[in-house]
Design goal:
This protein is mainly β. It is built from 2 helices and 15 strands. The strands form 2 sheets. Strands 1, 9, 10, 11, 12, 13, 14 and 15 form an 8-stranded mixed beta sheet that branches. The longest helix is centred in the middle third of the chain and has 6 residues, at about 85-90.
Length: about 170
């Protein structure tokens, strides 16, 4: 099963040790070089600042939320120096132009990822105005992505590679 990024935002983070909710997901940190989710931005009850929960520190991930062992799995940004390059980039898939060999396909609005591997599996979005007559949304599979940069996602848009109006199998 895949999870849609927009549906993960707002999910509770629960601790096994404390037997309850300890935080809420406020964002997702993606490594653009590997197209993987590396961490979740979370807000804990008593703090007014977002902290990070590394994907590798998750005990479980399901439709009800994220499960961790304890609050020590949530770290202030300053403590995660190994992620500094990714934090500096702050790559966000939603809002990026999706471009193929025949021009702009549209703008990315969401993405799905595998909760076991953290890999971004699909990117979905709204087509550009010139393409809206034929389709109302598009979905790009990971295998079609050729390159990502600060402003766009370049994809293979050859025949039969971009699905129009397709729905990603994911949690609602």
């Amino acid at each position: 099963m895949l999870f849609l990024a927009k549906n993960v935002i707002g999910m509770p983070v629960s601790s096994i040790r404390l037997a309850g909710k300890v935080a809420e997901v406020t964002g997702i940190l993606v490594d653009p070089d590997r197209l993987k989710v590396v961490a979740f931005w979370v807000k804990t009850g008593g703090k007014n600042v977002d902290e990070l929960l590394l994907f590798e520190d998750l005990r479980d991930f399901n439709m009800r939320g994220l499960i961790i062992d304890d609050l020590h799995n949530i770290s202030p940004v300053e403590e995660l120096t190994r992620l500094q390059r990714i934090l500096d980039i702050n790559y966000q898939i939603p809002g990026k132009k999706v471009v193929g060999s025949r021009g702009k396909l549209g703008t990315a609005e969401n993405f799905s990822f595998d909760p076991q591997t953290a890999e971004v599996m699909t990117i979905s979005g709204k087509p550009s105005l010139s393409r809206r007559f034929n389709q109302n949304e598009f979905t790009i599979h990971r295998s079609q992505i050729l390159e990502v940069d600060d402003s766009q996602i370049r994809v293979n848009d050859g025949p039969q590679t971009v699905s129009s109006g397709a729905k990603v199998t994911a949690t609602d």
